[in-house]
Design brief:
The chain has one domain. It has 4 helices and 8 strands, in the order αβααββββαβββ. It has a 5-stranded antiparallel β-sheet with strand order 1-2-3-4-5, with helices on one face. Helix 2 crosses helix 3. The longest helix has 21 residues. The radius of gyration is 20 Å and the shape is globular. The N and C termini lie far apart (57 Å). 23% of the residues are buried.
């Protein structure tokens, strides 16, 4: 009986220590991963996510303040955010380096492979898919290297999945 109580107390203490270690430092919000690896329409689910990112990253907030809200948002990793301006034919890739600093690069015109995976949105001006869309991949540059992002088309049954590989 005593051993059971000791083991139970140890398990509870270990659990509480693990929970407190996983909490973010006061004033530093934890990463929100519910939209990670997804392509979002900024007029729908992406609006809240863009606002959250702007609060965390002044580089993104400054860019959006100067350029306006994008049509789509892609979060292919915790260290990368891509904003898509369809009518401006502009892709902006924000990347957090190993030093913690955020930088960005711009890509104009939008790659055809990216246009093919954008969801149809009359407000953004994106066309309705044909049903023959395939996974689209495109390359962007970052300081000291490049990245390749790939997204599944919007006709897939699950949410659009996007991933990135940087070298």
């Amino acid at each position: 009986m005593l051993i059971t109580r000791v083991l139970l107390a140890f398990a509870m203490a270990t659990g509480m220590a693990a929970c407190s270690a996983s909490r973010p430092t006061r004033g530093v919000p934890a990463a929100d991963t519910r939209y990670l690896y997804q392509l979002l329409d900024v007029r729908k689910l992406g609006a809240e996510e863009l606002a959250r990112i702007e609060k965390l990253d002044p580089v993104v907030a400054d860019f959006v303040a100067r350029t306006g809200k994008p049509d789509f948002l892609i979060e292919p990793s915790l260290r990368d955010v891509q904003l898509v301006y369809y009518l401006k034919s502009l892709l902006v890739h924000f990347h957090q380096g190993t030093d913690g600093k955020w930088t960005y690069s711009e890509l104009t015109t939008l790659p055809t492979s990216l246009i093919g995976v954008l969801p149809s949105d009359i407000r953004a001006g994106t066309p309705t898919g044909t049903g023959n869309e395939m996974t689209g991949c495109w390359a962007t540059t970052i300081p000291g290297g490049s990245c390749q992002t790939c997204c599944t088309p919007p006709v897939t049954p699950a949410a659009q999945v996007c991933n990135i590989s940087c070298k």
